[in-house]
Every structure is written in C-alpha cells, then in structure tokens.
Amino acid sequence: MVHKVSSKVNLAIKALILGFALSACSAIAQPLALPDNLISITSDSGKKLLSASQSKTDYPPLSEYFVTQSHPAYCGVASMTIVINALHGDRKLTQDNFFDNQKTNQIASALSIQWRGMNLDTLGKLLESHNVKVQVYHATDTNLSTFRDLVTENLKQSNNFVLVNYLRRSIGQESGGHISPIAAYDRSTDRFLILYVASYKYPPVWVKAEELWQSINTIDNDGGKTRGFVLVSP
Fold first, then answer.
1. Please, what are the domains in the chain?
2. Is residue 164's pLDDT more than 80?
C-alpha cells in the first residue's frame, strides 16, 4: 500500500531541507555521495517512510530546533543544543554559549572539545550539567534488541529524545565517530532516521537498525569503551 505524505510532514521536510541547503551553501565542505545502504529523507522513499512511521513523535520538535554543527568537532555540541532547546521550547542555548555554564566548563571547555571532540560518557556529563535527566547506554551494556526497543519506545513518547554516538564509516559514511539525534523509526523496513548535524556533508538518513547497532558497537579510542546512545528527558 502506498502511503501519502501528509501536508504537515511535507512542510517539515521542506523546512529542514531549506535549512540544510543554506548551511551547505555557507560551508566549505561539499556534500558527499550517499552510500546505497542509506535512504535520504529528501528522496520519495525517504518521505514515504516518514509519513508511514508510527514512531516519529520526536521528529517535529527536533526539526524545529535543528542546527548544523558550527565546528568540525561540534557534532555533540550541536546535538545537545537541539535536544535541550526542544525540551525547553526555546532557542536560548546556542553552540556559542553552550560552555558559558560554569558546571559545563568544569567538565570540558569549548577548546578541548574543538581539539578532540567527545566520547559517550562526556556527552552524558555535559548534558547533565544543563539540568536534564540522562541515561547513558554503551553498546557492551545492551544488544540490538534492547537498543531497538529502548529507542523505538522513546520515539513514541513526547518530551524526551535520543542521541546516538556511532562510527560513520561502519555505515558507509565518511569517516570517524559522530553524534546526532535519532528522530523516527520505520518498523516495516527496520530503519531509524538520523538527523545528521553535519548537514553540509549528508542529509538526514534512514539506516537499518542492525547496521546502526554495529556502528555503535565499536571502540572509541577516546576512553577505550564502546560507543552507544543517550536518552534525554527533563
């Protein structure tokens, strides 16, 4: 059965695409070719997946507060800015003022993140410094089934979000570790939608749950632990 894309979903996608296009125009990096195993949200099939999804409660607020990372190492900062602003319903937090919080700066400075990025545990601590509840899951502490269940359940609920830390080359992207929000899940194809914050490289993409799981079940040299995902709530 062919699902028609609702007008609201179409408008949200168009707004998101416009934001990505403006970001891409101002960025030095050029958009990269998308590997065949990933489905762009800008494609007809990508739009149909979003329209048919029963687990996409997070997509509208994440799209509304979406920002492109302002520094090559700021994928985590941009992702945290998105979910915290979405939880609060405002745009007070930016990538420029994220580290102005004293508690945040005691965990990591803007300069240290720009120099080396962040691992999953640092991501969790930085989020907590902005007074949100955080549950950190390393891949070694879960499995594919648990990962799928926890994330899909979260995506059905409002006012909580998921950030995933994965190895890009494991799913065919370039190249190292990355952090972005997960915005939706399609059960029929077993795919998650990643709102990719380095939008000058790639659009939001649908990726198979098993492939995404394999990409988080990789060792991050910063800390020597596996990557994973974070659940964020007020």
1. 7-233 (3.90.70.30)
2. yes
